[in-house]
């Protein structure tokens, strides 16, 4: 999955050569992943799903090193005593876990993994909304969540996206995901978009805002030229995670 999501697609023969196993072994593995909706079969190989997301536990392992680098940069922006409104997604979860030295944080989130982590941090406060629980994604979505974030003015709004199109449009997989992300962005003093390189060109079909609408973008690699130009024109601070190692 790491290989396929990094490259967008892979052939059965290339995977067999990389892992030094037979094509039959690779086919059994990819058939199971495709049956679970985590990959999509194409002629001669597999690719990333076009319009649906994969399981949270699997997403967390994808590009994990890049996400850790992003989290390292993110932690430098957040002082002790700050309030954070944090969205769903594995990169925001890893980013919040990088704040282990900060104290007296208030975390507002619809991401249950982040909420549980915050509950174990001495001196942190955690608020979560009511709503419908998506068990596989381990988060809460719905109108109650949008209303929840509108009740606060957080110091930092922190979120990821499902994908970024070539022209800089931010994409997600459902209208509910977009609505909650936009509610966080509208009700914070400083917005921070976290994304690894796999999000550029990734197929997600619900539009919601543009990459240059935020205050900070933290990525593990330089963004495409069109996005970089738009960020520069709007004065958005672009942080490349590899620069902070």
TrEMBL record:
**UniProt keyword Cell cycle present:** no
- Pfam families recorded: DeoRC, HTH_DeoR
Q: Where is the HTH deoR-type domain?
A: 1-48
Query: Keywords in UniProt for this one?
Result: DNA-binding, Repressor, Transcription, Transcription regulation
Give the signal sequence positions. none
Q: This protein's superkingdom?
A: Bacteria
Can you name one GO molecular function term for this protein? DNA-binding transcription factor activity
Recorded protein name is: DeoR/GlpR family DNA-binding transcription regulator
**Source species, please?**
Rhodalgimonas zhirmunskyi
């Amino acid at each position: 999955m790491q290989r396929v999501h990094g490259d967008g697609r892979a052939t059965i023969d290339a995977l067999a050569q990389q892992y030094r196993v037979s094509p039959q072994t690779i086919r059994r593995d990819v058939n199971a992943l495709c049956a679970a909706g985590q990959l999509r079969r194409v002629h001669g190989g597999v690719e990333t799903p076009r319009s649906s997301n994969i399981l949270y536990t699997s997403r967390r392992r994808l590009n994990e090193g890049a996400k850790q680098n992003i989290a390292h940069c993110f932690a430098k922006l957040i002082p002790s005593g700050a309030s954070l409104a944090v969205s769903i997604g594995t990169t925001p979860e890893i980013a919040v876990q990088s704040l282990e030295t900060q104290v007296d944080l208030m975390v507002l989130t619809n991401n249950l993994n982040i909420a549980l982590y915050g509950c174990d941090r001495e001196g942190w406060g955690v608020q979560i909304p009511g709503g419908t629980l998506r068990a596989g994604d381990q988060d809460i979505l719905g109108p109650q969540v949008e209303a929840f974030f509108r009740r606060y003015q957080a110091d930092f709004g922190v979120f990821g996206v499902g994908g970024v199109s070539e022209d800089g449009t931010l994409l997600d997989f459902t209208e509910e995901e977009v609505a909650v992300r936009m509610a966080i962005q509208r009700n914070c003093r400083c917005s921070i978009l976290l994304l690894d390189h796999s999000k550029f060109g990734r197929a997600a079909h619900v539009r919601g805002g543009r990459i240059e609408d935020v205050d900070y973008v933290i990525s593990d690699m330089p963004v495409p030229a069109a996005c970089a130009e738009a960020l520069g024109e709007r004065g958005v601070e672009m942080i490349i995670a590899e620069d902070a190692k």
